[in-house]
Amino acid sequence: MSKPSPAIAEASSYRRWFDPPFYDELNAAVACGFHVCLNGPRGTGKTTAIKELASGWGKKLHVIQVHADLTIEELRGEPGLREGNSTFQRSPVVVAAERGDWVLFDEANLARPGVTAWMNNVLDDDGVVSIPATGELIPVARAFRCFFSWATREHVSSIRRWWTGAA
Q: Please, are residues 149 and 102 in contact by the beta-carbon 8 Å criterion?
């Protein structure tokens, strides 16, 4: 395989993503300690903006692709067995909340109401993750941020913020 021409190599070094109009507000919301909800038409950069923002903040982003069959148990974690012993595998949401990582619920509107309602205790000022299978109450790290995004048919993107008390 031959090397790309200098023009192609130069073009590939250019930035492939440009800040959408809501990017500064998104960044400010995160800096103020908000959890964020983004909605707008498909292909407007909602998911990419959150991924770029996480990268810029040096944060690990856990992406949850929401679907109609998503369960609360999947958000908490699942029991298992290892070498004959009972175990509990924490979900990416629980790991992120504990470590102060970020979580993106992509296409959040597809979840059943009870599933996203479980996040209320996690998103509170003194958030806590309840794991009934182990009896644990895990405090949520102050740096934890949660993003909900979904596509709409509207031609305007919007951003909503939830204050967590953390800054």
A: no
CATH number at residue 85: 3.40.50.300
**124 occurs within a structural domain:** yes
Distances (CA, A) of 133 to 48, 86, 116, 128: 35, 11, 19, 15
Question: 19-32, pLDDT tens digit by residue?
Answer: 778 889 999 999 99
**pTM for the full predicted model:** 0.78
Q: In which domain, by residue range, is 30 found?
A: 24-163
Backbone phi, then psi, for 114, in 5-degree steps?
-65, -30
pLDDT tens, 62-85?
A: 999 999 999 998 998 888 888 888
Do residues 80 and 87 touch, judged by C-beta distance below 8 A?
yes
